[in-house]
Amino acid sequence: MTNHPSAKKITICQPDDWHVHLRDGTLLKGVLRSTAKVFRRAIVMPNLQPPITSIDAAFAYRDRILASLPRELSFTPLMTAYLTDDFSSKVLEKGHSKGIFFAAKLYPANSTTNSASGVSDLRRIDFLLETMERIGLPLLIHGEVTDPDVDIFDREAVFIDRHLTPLLTRFPDLRIVLEHITTEHAVKFVESNGPNLAATITPHHLHINRNAMFLNGLRSDFYCLPVVKREKHRLALRKAATSGKPCFFLGTDSAPHLRSSKENACGCAGIFNAPFAIESYVEVFEQEDSLDSLEAFASKNGSQFYGLPSNKDSITLIKESQTVPKYIEILNDQGQLEHLVPFHAGETLSWRIETKNSNGSE
Ligand code: NCD
Ligand code: ZN
CA-CA distance, 189 to 97, in Å (whole number)? Predict the structure, then answer.
């Protein structure tokens, strides 16, 4: 679809979210609509407590998601396996052939929220990666080292140099997504190592740099992992996302945490961007004079990488401002009222979704 840079209205094929945390229990019920009202499909992260490490757990989690889905919405959750040091390759293969494992997620142990049971050393799972390469199961990577002697702002770059480069040599046919990239180094690396390597880019890494976390005080709403970096990295990410290149696609990394867990002596990492995710992205594409590339990034490149057809329906965005609420009320598992703060809380965004258009053929 052609969308002129100065357009006031744009229509794109319905997008997918290739990286989202939907959580579980009351939180799942509270956040699912935000994703499913816009995105037709989403890759659902497995870092629950306990994590999704079996076929049964993945089926059961998918059932809970579908049971929480508002009836009028069509949404397909694509499930992932949480890799551990002792994950069995038979289980991986069986889960793939049963169609429940769409991909497998590598969390280096202790790299982020609920990653304590992640992989302690990449070399220990070569046997799993061999299986994945053979059966065509994609590997999704949280690309950060956890060594305490590596500065937190360098952890992605060091992961790429120390672990990802040799991994690509060992498994040239393995399809890999470096998730939520945050640096110029990652952009360049992904661009020059295709076509089996791709990357997702979040809305927040396109909008904020590390100053946002410290603006007039400590701002836990802007703390996520991998942590936001310097301005030059944000600019490189904006260029990559809006380039239209097939190796970059949409993955919100929407990661809701209750306000009480964020505003805490040890606040959780994660930004809840699902409620205004597509509006957040479109703002960046407009600012970069690249509305023509929005559809590739949001609706085409990801499905193409994963070998899926594009969605049949479309959505129309219109240039009309809307103010993002300061918080969204939600019940916690104990039935008490809590707050979730959405990304862009209190800000005015220039676009809103006008319609979701069904072509009636599904
Ligand atoms: C995610 C979460 O809360 O589950 N947090 C985050 O900061 N992105 C985990 C992750 O994707 O790293
Ligand atoms: Zn994530």
Answer: 32
